[in-house]
Amino acid sequence: MYRDARNPALAAGQTEVSAGFSTSHAALDFAAPSLHLRSLRLNTSRVEIDEGHTFDNRFLLVWHDREGCFKDAAYRRFWQAFSKAVCNDGPRVDDTLHVSPLGSARRAEFLVIGGDGRLASHCANGLMYAGWRYAERCESRAVTFYCGRDRRTVRVRGAFAEVNLGRPRPLSARGRYPAQLRRAPLLVDTGEPHAVSFDQDVALWDHDAKTFSELGQAVCRTGAPAGINWNLVTPCDDGLAIRTFERGVRRPTSSCGTGSAAAFHAAQLSGRYDCDELPVVSAGGCHLVRRHKDDLLVTGQPSHHRTWVLDDYLSTAL
């Protein structure tokens, strides 16, 4: 049975912003007029945007109204500039999510833009939130997203959503890891590239947020130029606890679905667990990760905050 949970030991040492969306910020007040003018030129001012989160992983979900819109360079650059603004200032969104139609009520293209402006194909928490919202729109219990070369199915069960991340892929080591790591992390791609370490792999570790952030920056840089996510995992009696340093925003985040999948996979490979299902707890909440055949499935609980049109968001929320 799936259960939500919080980990006080993790929460006490982390500095992430809560799931509530903050209001204006000087840098965004400066950026908003320029973004507003560009949106008018691109005819995007009435595009719908959802605010929401999955376990404190905060998103703006953009509902694009035409297929293949990101092939237009000016259109793509606008949303990259928008994402840099909302991820790095003011609301401190973790990522912006983008859904475009594919000619079927239950199929759509999905992509993610982080605070560095980079386009990515996966974010498990984002897929759960987008799939949960999309399923409401098309009155379905399952939707399929095309994520780059992969297809990802999201199934909705009441307040919960489960995404199939497919088979994890091993990654080759790059760069030199910080001396404080006693051993090299396990590298795995679960839709996003992750470097996974366990508590005992870190020398002089006292669970403080500053040290975690500094190590996260150092590990992230080994995946240059785009970086790599770093997960620090603590095995517990009834599952795993993780912290995540996210490459897209270059800071700790309170929850990461692909990170939970990577932690589960690393725990199995290292012989720490031999079961096919584990709760993985972060400061934001608890994912249930399970293996079905060779695929990793992650369940979480999305939450919707508000729906805007872009014009109102730029003039009001920012």
Describe this structure in words.
With 318 residues, the protein is of the alpha+beta class. The chain has 7 helices and 18 strands. The chain has an 18-stranded mixed β-sheet that branches. The N and C termini lie far apart (40 Å).
Summarize the structure.
This protein has 318 residues and is an alpha+beta fold.
Low-confidence stretches: 1-19
In helices, the fraction of residues equals 25-40%
Helix and strand element order: HHEEHEEEHEEEEEEHEEEHEEEEH
DSSP, total strands? 18
Distance between the first and last residues' Cα? 40 Å
| Alpha-beta classification | alpha+beta
- Average pLDDT over all residues: 89
How much of the sequence lies in strands comes to: 25-35%
- Individual helix count: 7
What Rg is obtained from the alpha carbons, in whole angstroms?
19 Å
Taken from the alpha-carbon principal axes, the silhouette is globular
Which terms summarize this structure?
318 residues; alpha+beta; single chain; globular; 7 helices; 18-stranded mixed β-sheet
Please render the helix and strand layout as text.
Blueprint lengths: L7 H6 L12 H17 L5 E7 L2 E7 L9 H16 L6 E10 L2 E7 L5 E2 L3 H15 L3 E6 L2 E8 L2 E5 L4 E2 L15 E4 L3 E6 L10 H13 L7 E8 L2 E8 L4 E3 L3 H13 L7 E5 L4 E7 L2 E6 L1 E8 H8 L1
Helix pairs in contact: 2-3, 2-7
